[in-house]
Task: structure prediction
Amino acid sequence: MRNRTRLVTIGVAAAGAFIVIMFLQSSGQGQRPARLDGHPNLSGIWQALNEANWDLEAHAARPGFLTQPGVHPLAEVPAAPALAMGAVGSVPGSIGVVEGGTIPYQPWALAQKKDNQQHWLDRDPEVKCFLTGVPRSMYLPHPFQITQGGRKIEIAFAYSSSGRTIHMEKVDPLPDDTYNGFSLGRWEGDTLVVDTTGFNGKTWFDRAGNFASDALKVTERFTPAGNLNDMFVVRYEATIEDPTVFTRSWKISMPLYRRVEPNAQLMEFRCVEFVEELAFGHLRRQQLVKHYEGDTLNIDITRKVPNDPTVLYQRDYVMPPKK
Result:
């Protein structure tokens, strides 16, 4: 009887210890090995804290994500889609993350970039919840989780519940080009180096219209900063090569920060569902917030006059025809 009681007590204690360990691991408080298979352990939840997704290059703050000339050509004011958002719809300034300061576009590509910026709301893949590709997925304003294994490194993104695989062994490339491309990784000392090719040419680098073609090649470098036992920062670099669009290769760099708050985890951001009205709203018999006139998209902004809640007025923002 005593032996049976002792076994039950040991079993309960072991189960309790297992629960505590699982809780600590899930809450981000558990101990993680500094190395896996002799390499730095990058497993964890990470996030970039900068303005790169707005514009990789240095830029001043703007009053709206879309603007139009005000009383003076140099005095930009928010266009109708951003007007009602006030300061929330503004663009924060940034010192930039491009080494050397400027992206070396070919002349035709620079003109295309400027045209993209003017048509941002109608063209940016992020607006429609398409995958944002590499390297943009690494500095979206959403966290991502790295799960490190011997032959594969998986990265899960909160944005659109998407992900990418870094193959640490030689495997056949994908049969078709994709938004995230095909990634092969290797270790150079304590730095994880990832070469990615096989892009479909449909992704942008940011909301400023910076873009590349399907000839894009991205070489990423993940280098731990500080002590591996309490690694909270990884230096992230991405070298961009695309002879179709740029005159030479160029590089961006930034820190990635580990999320260390209790119960740190990826939350769902099912943006596919969030853009259903944008993608399929034109099929409604009665439009909610927009309507088409031929190929021109009109976004209707209706607001109450502050001093008279019974009076409404409407402003239309006319998007240029789709190309």
Summary: Residues 2-26 form the longest helix (25 residues). The mean pLDDT is 84. The chain has six helices and 16 strands. Residues 45 and 265 are 7 Å apart (CA to CA).
